[in-house]
Amino acid sequence: MTNDLNTLLTALYVKIDDELETGRWMGRPPQLADSELVTLAVAQALLGFHSETRWLRYANTHLASMFPYLPQQSGYNKRLKAALPLVKKAIRIFAVDTDFWFDTHWIVDSTPVSCGMSRPTVKRSELAGWAGYGYCASQSRFFWGLRLYLVCTPVGMPILWALAGPKMDEREVLQAMLDVDADLVANRPGLLIITDKGFASKEFESDLAMRGISLLRPSFTREKKRPGESLLKSVRQLIESVNDTLKGQLDLEQHGGRTFGGVAVRVAQRVLAMAAAIWHNHRSNAPITRSLIAFDH
Description:
The protein is α/β, with parallel strands linked by helices. It is 46% helix and 15% strand. Strands 1, 2, 3, 4, 5 and 6 form a 6-stranded mixed sheet that branches. Helix 1 runs antiparallel to helix 2. The radius of gyration is 20 Å and the shape is globular.
């Protein structure tokens, strides 16, 4: 198996078409199948097109052999928003189909997803009430938007993810994520979750212990050194590189979403693109599992 965009999209389409329950439509089916739509969305994220109009113009010229029919921008936007459940399922499908799915070491972090850059935008945005003002300590900046919470393996394969308001307690968000996928945690004895200091709390650690989960985080200045803390520096570099892939290569903060559904599916689109690339690189024995270089041109 070779590593290039066409090979990835072909493998992606076949996998999605085989495993997702697509094509169940009342009446006349759409000319662009659901599996084609999800594959097209991954290609858009990998190639870095923020504008859907420009993307469809490019796809009509360069990908017509793979996608004989492409909708207009409004139709594509509407179909993409409706496909959010399929995109979520696809992320899980690619994660499960790798050895990384069985990893008992999970890294947890959150990163800002800006949704507006000016006061007038904030005042008239449909995201008001969901998005809000927050502060990113690692980048020393304030932002208006959401935070993406990502639970992934050390290679960056997404296991769980969620979007939440920037003022929400990080521990509560993670607990809610674990509650939603309780069976996922129950089937992993000896699970270790690695976080930063923001997740420090005796009550939180007790809750994780009741779930059979151990927590590894940095200790505070007046706190006794915690077991395994010497490994955290290299782990921190791993999660920063995952965030860099999402932001630097997949343009996470340039999603262009203006509504709840629009932001959610565009973030999911980028998480899926990373998961699909890791899956394909793993299957093709590529030397760097999370590399997107072969697919971004």
